[in-house]
Design goal:
alpha+beta; 3-stranded antiparallel β-sheet
Length: about 270
């Protein structure tokens, strides 16, 4: 099986979230790894392969909200103009960092993706004035990046202008050019897939999608067609989930209370093993 080769910082964020759950002693993930917990949840409540909806039964059962905490997570919550509410808003939307540091914008694949090859794709472009020296896009150690042109909207991906990237910094990127980043993997130990944005960047994200295919035991090239098999569950676009939420929904216990556990996942960034 092919595992998702997450970048060092994403592995650190996931490890930090696991440590936070262990410290708090709450939820199934405090005792089990994600795959074990996800399998148990799907046995009771089968799910299609796609993104987990915010504040859904699966989201709460697997305590996924804890991985949205900390300054290294940009988050998807957008306050309204009056400042008295807002909602979780997925692409299409613009992402920027705050606090002068790189930030991750993660989503989580569902338990229904276990045993399948999952293809995650982000379509985006850097806006004028963005720093291109540090890279941006889908946070995966190995991925395929395809240029989709410089038009007002991204062109269809015909696979003619693509490159395999060994890490974020090796991928070509230009301001005002659309790109598609794709990674195909078999989930084993983490459901997190992230878009990363660095300081001094404004990232226009057109879409962030995930789809699962019944695993055949082999890994296809990321930009090849799926003529050898049909999608078993179809694609799940970000636009499907725009559930209203409050900051408490994303950053506190299920009952809205704070148990006093303070945990900043950023502290592990300089200490994690490759």
């Amino acid at each position: 099986m092919t595992k998702l080769n997450m970048s060092k910082k994403t592995r650190c964020l996931w490890a930090a979230g696991m440590a936070a759950l262990a410290v708090a002693g709450k939820g199934v993930l405090a005792d089990d790894d994600w795959a074990t917990a996800a399998k148990a949840f799907c046995e009771k409540s089968p799910q299609p392969c796609g993104w987990v909806a915010d504040d859904s039964e699966e989201w709460n059962a697997l305590n996924l909200g804890v991985y949205m905490e900390g300054t290294a997570i940009g988050g998807w919550y957008v306050p309204n103009e009056d400042g008295d509410g807002g909602q979780v808003t997925y692409p299409p939307r613009t992402l920027e960092t705050f606090g002068g540091m790189s930030q991750e914008f993660p989503r989580f694949i569902s338990c229904g993706c276990l045993g399948k090859e999952v293809t995650a794709t982000a379509v985006f472009k850097l806006e004028e004035g963005s720093d291109i020296s540090t890279g941006a896009g889908l946070d995966a150690k190995q991925k395929t990046r395809c240029s989709l042109g410089t038009g007002e909207q991204p062109a269809d991906n015909d696979g003619s202008d693509c490159q395999d990237c060994s890490d974020e910094s090796s991928c070509d990127i230009n301001v005002s050019e659309w790109y598609s980043d794709t990674v195909t993997f078999t989930p084993t130990d983490s459901p997190m897939v992230s878009i990363f944005v660095n300081p001094g960047q404004t990232l226009d994200v057109q879409s962030f999608e995930a789809a699962g295919i019944a695993s055949s035991g082999s890994r296809r090239r990321l930009n090849e067609s799926d003529s050898d098999g049909e999608y078993s569950d179809g694609e799940y676009s970000d636009g499907e989930y725009s559930d209203e939420a409050s900051p408490a929904t994303a950053h506190s216990d299920d009952d809205g209370s704070d148990d006093g556990t303070q945990f900043d996942p950023c502290y592990v960034h300089t200490d994690c093993e490759t």
